């Protein structure tokens, strides 16, 4: 069974991102073609990147990095739920991505973003980051508007059309997660 991690990219007190991530998880969990789990970055606190060697070398020295690497290595693909901060990726999410390398490689990625303009600028920046991490970001995106998909900018009430977009996104993530399995297996054999 393929295992997909849903990464919640906001750790702010008072965040709305937890509602978005739970909405994704609840909908995804009805599927039978993969298993889904929520990965809340609050449960994986990391200092600002403090590894002496570039993560692409895989020489992790800190215990918190090894724990994070083990967590991420256990998933075959990901959906990132991201807000947009100052037209970009939240620092806590970028930091969590920067910590690792091989553990992200050859895994599919779907993007669910939210903000006044659907969080699209954050999502677009994440596509550039994904390319460098050798992740396969799928075309379909879910973009939730703080104006029309939240009540008073705080309570998530997404339009039905977003469910169709989320379904298509999950279809694509699962298809690519599955297609990339031989590359992940080859990398495991080389590393061992
Ligand atoms: C530091 C910061 C910068 C923000 N910049 C943007 C922005 O550039 N574009 C936008 O759509 N919303 C922006 N917002 C508003 C967020 O979309 C809104 O606060 C949203 O609830 C953030 O997600 P979260 O509550 O899950 O952290 C910003 C919020 C914060 C805290």
Largest sheet strand order: 2-1-3-4-5
Poorly predicted spans: none
H-E string? EHEHEHEHEEEHH
Question: Given the structure, what is the number of helices?
Answer: 6
Average per-residue pLDDT, rounded, comes to 97
Bound molecules: flavin mononucleotide
CATH class: Alpha Beta
Assembly category: single chain
Strand-residue proportion: 15-25%
Number of strands: 7
Give the overall form: globular
What is the helix fraction of residues, given as a range? 25-40%
Description:
- Strands 2-1-3-4-5 form a 5-stranded parallel β-sheet, sandwiched between helices.
- 39% of the residues lie in helices and 22% in strands.
- The mean pLDDT is 97.
- It is α/β, with parallel strands linked by helices and 192 residues long.
- The chain has helices spanning 17-28, 63-73, 91-98, 120-132, 160-179, 181-191, and strands at 3-8, 35-40, 77-83, 107-115, 135-145, 150-151, 155-156.
- It has one domain (2-191): 3-Layer(aba) Sandwich (Rossmann fold).
- The protein has 6 helices and 7 strands.
- The radius of gyration is 16 Å and the shape is globular.
- The longest helix is centred in the last third of the chain and has 20 residues, at 160-179.
- Bound molecules: flavin mononucleotide (FMN).
- Flavin mononucleotide (FMN) is lined by residues 10, 12, 15-17, 83-87, 115-117, 146.
